[in-house]
Amino acid sequence: MRVSLAVTGLVLLVAGCAAETPAAAPVPSSAPPSSSAAPSPSPSASAAPVAKDLTKYLPSEEQLASAGARRQQDRLPYVVSSNTPLRIVRACGADQPWDAAVQNGAQAISVTDTVQVRQLLAEYRDYSGEQVVSGLGKALDCGKVVVEDESLAVKTRFSVPGVADPQLGFCGQFGSVRVAACVLVLAHGDRALAITSVGWRANMTEQQAELKRLAPTFAAAFDQD
After folding, report:
1. Which of 54, 168, 174, 219 has the fewest Cβ atoms within 10 Å of its own Cβ atom?
2. What rounded mean pLDDT belongs to the chain?
3. 29: which residues sit within 8 A by CB, 6+ positions away?
4. What separation, in Å, do the N-terminal and C-terminal C-alpha atoms of the chain show?
């Protein structure tokens, strides 16, 4: 009987100690990857479109040489911006609706024995070159344009036979100096080209004749697609 009570007491003692012993803390599992990790770089935004090179629409040196002219200033792109607007002809000395639609351009200067020939080419958005030429024809009813910051009084208009492009030609006299100038504007697609002759050695009639002679050379380069 004493043995039985002793065993029973020992069992109760062991059970009590086990109840007081705290259970071991579970070993934490590995933490999952953080969801706040930096995302991989997104694809780069599309690069801004590169403006077309319009200089090919102006005559090369070889083409000029065959027409008895030579390059004075190389063919260069015209960077159009708010600080450098492009107006091929500043009719009436004021901006015209199509001037704000110019998106690209090119320029060059050539010379012959009697005149300097400046070329200014514009590519338009939402306007055709023919619309620009037609609009210029109406705007010039005011009787003047501004060339190189000088007012040119329009005296006569002309066209070039054999050139199929829509066109507008006119000649005039600068007010502050006794010098004439002539301008021929050609249209093709969404482009317009102004060819301006200025020269101390040639009067209005001679400059007009010189532009008519050179027109096929300029049109051949301008009309290529």
Report:
1. 174
2. 83
3. none
4. 121
Residue with tokens 């109406």: 138
Segment 177-195, tens digit of pLDDT: 778 999 999 999 999 999 9
Query: Around 165, how many Cα atoms within 13 Å sit in the side-chain half-sphere?
Result: 31
Q: Give me the residue label for tokens 């590169």.
A: 50
Cα distance between residue 131 and residue 142, in whole Å: 18
What does the chain come to in residues? Answer: 225
Q: Residue 48 CA to chain centroid, in angstroms?
A: 11
pLDDT digits (tens, 9 = 90+) for 51-78: 689 999 999 999 999 999 999 999 999 9
Beta strands in 63-166 (DSSP E): 70-78, 90-91, 102-111, 116-124, 144-147, 150-158
